[in-house]
Amino acid sequence: MNIIGPDYLVFGVDDVAGCCEYLTAFGLKPVDVTDKGGLFETLDGTGVIVRHKSDPSLPPPLPTANMLRQQVYGVRARQDLDAIEAELSKDRRVTRLSDGSIEVKDDHGFELKFQVSIRRVLDMPAEKINAPGAPAQRKPNEIGVWEEMPALPRTLSHVVLFVPDIEIATKFYCDRLGFVITDILTGAGPFLRPKANDDHHTLFFIRTPDYMKGCEHLAFHMGGPTELMVAGTRFVKKGYQSFWGPGRHKFGSNWFWYFNSPLGCHVEYDADMDKHDDNWVAREAPNGAEASQIVLFEMREKWAPGGGPPPGAKG
């Protein structure tokens, strides 16, 4: 099963206008958006769909207050949809839609959809760095940052789910859909990647009571840590609230910056995630701040160096 990763996340929200404003400010492009909501996409076409929670076109809600309605996964080819349908129809209802996509529930009741991926191929440079002892990546007179530099989400990176039973969730995605465990935070849960994606993770579980079941956060890949810092700073200046970061995780090595959102979950910029293949051996560490972050900064107002004390001033 060549599952690539999430194409879309679908939310049923209380405040459609507020969510539309938020996602646009975050750097996603509105596509056919009306006062009823619509699609907000990254540079490769993945993204977020929002509708009012009462919209009849939405899948049914979880039995919690969480606003996530559906995770839409992209696969490489039609044959992958056939394989997923054949596997999951062994013990549950699988609905084949007119466009060939399929809908189904996982073992915790999360609504899933699988489709041939809509991702557009990106051809963009990564962030360039110059370091002593290595060839310069930027040419002479090529600057690394400027006030109006682009810093937009490139692709939907991953989703983190609150689930009451880690073993049940992991068994479904690994045994039934071919996901691979890359690392484990004991007391929280495993990082998972699908077979057709070499990112450290596109899915992570956190064990919580049943009443918290839902989406904890979703994340978007940026072109590098500088883009992450620039986009996050611009977002804060627009009045949105930082939740955690900026910083850098240990497992996955990705830079992060999380923000509160009207989607009922956190939304993250990430950058520079590790890549893995089947030779990787999963690590395990106790969940906590020491295992989660190797670097964490604090957001503060701008500061600039000034001159020394005026003549005659006393210390």
Automatic annotation (TrEMBL):
Stretches assigned to the VOC domain: 155-272
Keywords annotated in UniProt: Metal-binding
InterPro entries, per database record: Glyas_Bleomycin-R_OHBP_Dase, Glyas_Fos-R_dOase_dom, Glyoxalase_1_CS, VOC_core
Keyword Metal-binding: yes
Domain of life: Bacteria
Pfam families listed in its UniProt record: Glyoxalase
Key word Metal-binding present: yes
Protein name: Catechol 2,3-dioxygenase-like lactoylglutathione lyase family enzyme
